[in-house]
Amino acid sequence: MTDVVVVESPAKAKTINKYLGDNYTVLASFGHVRDLPPKDGSVKPDEGFAMVWETDERGSRQIAAIAKALRGASHLYLATDPDREGEAISWHVRSILEEKKLLKGIEVQRVTFNEITKSAIKAAMAHPRELDFPLIEAYLARRALDYLVGFTLSPVLWRKLPGSRSAGRVQSVALRLICEREAEIEIFKPREYWSVLARMTTPAGAAFTARLTHLDGHKLEQFDLNNEASAMAAKAAVEAGEFGVEKVERRKVRRNPPPPFTTSTMQQEASRKLGMGAQVAMRTAQQLYEGIDIGGETVGLITYMRTDGVQMAGEAISAIRGHIGHSFGEQYVPDKPRIYSTKAKNAQEAHEAIRPTDVRRTPADMARYLSPEQKKLYDLVWKRSVASQMQSAELDQVAVDIVDRRNQRVTLRATGSMIAFDGFLKLYSEGRDDSPAKADDEQDRMLPAMKERDAIGRGEVTADQHFTQPPPRYSEASLVKKMEEIGIGRPSTYASILTVLRDRNYVQLENRRFIPEDRGRLVTAFLTSFFERYVDTQFTAGLEEQLDDISGGRANWRDVMSAFWSDFSHAVDQTKDLKISDVITALDADLSPYFFPAREDGQDPRLCTACNTGRLGLKLGRYGAFIGCSNYPTCQYTRKLVADPKEGDDAAALKDGMRVLGAAPTGEDVTVRRGPWGLYVQQGEPDPEDKKAKPRRATIPRGLDGDKITLEQAVGLLSLPRIVGIHPELGEPIEAGLGRFGPYVKMGAVYGSLDKDDDVLTVGLNRAVDALAKKLASIRTIGPHPKDGEPVMVRKGRFGPYVQHGSIVATVPRGQDMNDVTMDEALTLLTEKGKPLKAKGKKATTTRKPAARKTKAKAAEGEDAAPKKAAPKKKAAPRKTAAKPAAKKTTTRKKATPAKTESETD
């Protein structure tokens, strides 16, 4: 006679059966065994929110298998995942078995474990408990809420805003965040400001850069130098000065390690550092949790990956501290263990943080057992967990004030820092969502030794133009962070929410940033106009708090549902008499700044460009909304709201196929044409006698209006790539051009992508340098060569670092860090091993480096597509697998869409 244990996935079932032995039969439920049918009426508000459950074919098979195994058993252990969703699956299994009267004489108990290791499984089986009904009721409330919002609000969208897909309780709020950020960017007005930098040298000849901070006794604020004239006057004042060190300030700064991963922070770091989408990160983490085959034994490498707790078990902390002392030295072990507490809103710290189950299983030892994705994520989790218990880093920060000795008229400041003790930074450094400010970059620089009253030599002085930048679009990492901060959704739901937004074509992910599609902006405008409360972040966060109160036994789930449904159903009823024309009028007014931005020439942006008399506005057609002319049907000008990304918005205006702009400097006609891939400009016509000779062509980039493009702009596009300028530090020319993936800047073999808002025809040197900065971070300038003053650099190459002076390169000895190479060592290498750059051909620099970068870029871009290839591996994500059979019904019922796609459960 054997007892029965039910888990979620077959991978866990096999491993756990090995740990428990022959006295147990371990079976998998394959996620949920039943769910709400995807049709109206599955939740009955008038009957106390009673729910109609439906067991799908696979669920029926699993229940039958469990029932068969229970014959003769005395115990049924429900060992599904240790969260609300896992509790619900256990409840569903028990409920079905009770309804079938299959539990007579069988004791049913619940067991949970945070890691799949033999000791954790044995400990869990020794301490079973009853089902947690407050947690189950929280699941019921969340499931009913998502169902009712989806099945009630989505049909309103279909009827009142044809072309829309669906709405969801948390999904719609996330979409609103993306759209509002885009609106902030659109109304942003850049302000001009200038900075003055001077190249300086110490008495020992070491070079550094200082920034002008005071002029004529006045401290310069950001916008004090707001035009070229004032900047040039300041530059002249610096050039006229003779400088010395007035003051050197030094202070020690301690930097503490970040806590171990929660679900949210793991998704954020995986996005920043590994280029993994949230969905890929969660799937990979589940594989590491469920177990990896190591030497014939399946071993769980990390703890449960759905958690918002940051604490770790005492034995895990002790093991990590011991490992730190053994591997890094006792100086890296703090006097006391670090104890963390979460700052996230609505956090439930019932589970540990995500950590390795055994710190002795290092990423290097595990690498041969893991896939590339698993290896990268395990390395991230392991390092973050170990670093969280390491000693703080200590930095020596230095600020040097340099003044004009003659009249004290000019003061410059140079800042930098040096790591006095690396502490946790020896192992791990947390990523950032967006590029750091220039001040942070300067703070991270190292300064040469200086003391007060030192005479300082002045080199080149530059005045650089800048413009303030709009807030950045949300990345997956920053959007997840924002949602967690304001308390909407749960960490385990973020991946599915972001996936739904993309699948519904409400947003697109470009350069790993979310950009709302026109359809998404229409839906957001509709919901904020007629259901503002239900897409309000504070209301949604407040509802999350009520759901947490239910799970904690502090609120009755039916009372919470009744209060919500009373107001929500009333708001929906008020839209019954709403005419579609009223909706279009409201959206036309709300989205006017977006669809009809002000024109530089002062003309009415709504003036029809085809008939020059009609007024453009939102119209409604059979397949959704579009921009049309008020003179219809006389004027049939239309413009899509949801444009093909390969086709400009105004492509429909080129009804004759082409438009002549004028003559190029060569005398040939320049035309705008519409091809299969969108709008482009062309110079001249094909030569009928020479079929190989083709006229010059250039794609019109997104953001440039094909209907209003000028001859000057077209000629500019045809002349790309163009020289932007010379890099101020490296002295190499920078080009700007259009490539397959959009506008770019290039310096030698180094490429940098430009943003959608950058104009490739006018982008300046400063912006080009900024775009190349990340790629150039792999280059370290040691200093000027003693013979000719040209910079001596250390670069990261495909096969290791190398030093370069002009066109001469030399490989750095294997094992030596590029940051440790001194000027003397570099000069010796160049003298003894130096070879001309051209002698190695394009392999050494021109081809090799870009190839490496391109591979990384493709890997980063490909992460979001990875789930499609991995789709058959449903065992790694049992909950999604469980939903699949029901989802098939949505192909025959339009109303089935909201129930499955909008279910936002943990």
UniProtKB/TrEMBL annotation:
Basic and acidic residues: compositionally biased ranges: 858-867
Family: Belongs to the type IA topoisomerase family.
A UniProt-annotated Pfam family: Zn_ribbon_Top1
UniProt entry tagged with the keyword Endoplasmic reticulum: no
Protein name: DNA topoisomerase 1
Annotated PROSITE patterns: TOPO_IA_1, TOPO_IA_2, TOPRIM
Gene Ontology biological process: DNA topological change
Catalytically driven reaction(s): ATP-independent breakage of single-stranded DNA, followed by passage and rejoining
GO cellular component: chromosome
Region (Disordered): 837-906
A molecular function (GO) term: DNA binding
Organism: Komagataeibacter xylinus (Gluconacetobacter xylinus)
UniProt enzyme class: isomerase
InterPro entries: Topo_IA (IPR000380), Topo_IA_2 (IPR003601), Topo_IA_AS (IPR023406), Topo_IA_cen (IPR013497), Topo_IA_cen_sub1 (IPR013824), Topo_IA_cen_sub2 (IPR013825), Topo_IA_cen_sub3 (IPR013826), Topo_IA_core_domain (IPR023405)
Entry EC no(s): 5.6.2.1
SMART domains attached to this UniProt entry: TOP1Ac, TOP1Bc, TOPRIM
Keywords: DNA-binding, Isomerase, Magnesium, Metal-binding, Topoisomerase, Zinc, Zinc-finger
SUPFAM superfamilies, alphabetized: Prokaryotic type I DNA topoisomerase, Zinc beta-ribbon
Record-annotated Topo IA-type catalytic domain positions: 132-572
Catalytic residues identified in the record: 304
Known role: Releases the supercoiling and torsional tension of DNA, which is introduced during the DNA replication and transcription, by transiently cleaving and rejoining one strand of the DNA duplex. Introduces a single-strand break via transesterification at a target site in duplex DNA. The scissile phosphodiester is attacked by the catalytic tyrosine of the enzyme, resulting in the formation of a DNA-(5'-phosphotyrosyl)-enzyme intermediate and the expulsion of a 3'-OH DNA strand. The free DNA strand then undergoes passage around the unbroken strand, thus removing DNA supercoils.
UniProt feature, compositional bias: Basic residues: 837-857, 870-897
CDD domains for this protein: TOP1Ac, TOPRIM_TopoIA_TopoI
Domain Toprim: 2-116
Record site: Interaction with DNA: 32, 142-143, 146, 158, 306, 504
Residue numbers spanned by region Interaction with DNA: 166-171
NCBIfam families (UniProt xref): topA_bact
